[in-house]
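User: Just a sanity check before I run the rest of the batch. Below are the structure tokens for the first item. I only need the designed sequence back.
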């Protein structure tokens, strides 16, 4: 006599479970990504205030400009290539890796 009754999931049930787990994972990843972006912006704003004398008005303009740029990042297929061209090529800051866009519109790094 068996102590338990095994439960076998149908393909539809497995797919539903997998999709739910993926949605929850994406939600957590988006929260972490937003948290890291906020931390980076706080650092930028702090340095601009300390070294360049940015006050409340200029800091808010900088913050809003960053938000507008990031909002267009999802719509522009070559957004990160344009940013890399300015930051790496024109400003000569070699510490960054280049970001590229794959055929599905997702940004990735090529090492």
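Assistant: Here's the designed sequence for the first item:
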């Amino acid at each position: 006599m068996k102590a338990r009754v095994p439960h076998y999931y149908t393909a539809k049930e497995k797919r539903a479970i997998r999709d739910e787990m993926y949605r929850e994972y994406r939600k957590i990843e988006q929260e972490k990504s937003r948290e890291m972006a906020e931390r980076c912006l706080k650092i930028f704003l702090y340095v601009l205030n300390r070294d360049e004398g940015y006050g409340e008005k200029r800091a808010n303009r900088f913050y809003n400009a960053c938000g507008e740029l990031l909002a267009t990042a999802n719509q522009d297929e070559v957004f990160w290539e344009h940013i890399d061209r300015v930051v790496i090529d024109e400003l000569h800051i070699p510490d960054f890796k280049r970001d590229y866009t794959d055929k599905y519109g997702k940004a990735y790094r090529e090492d």
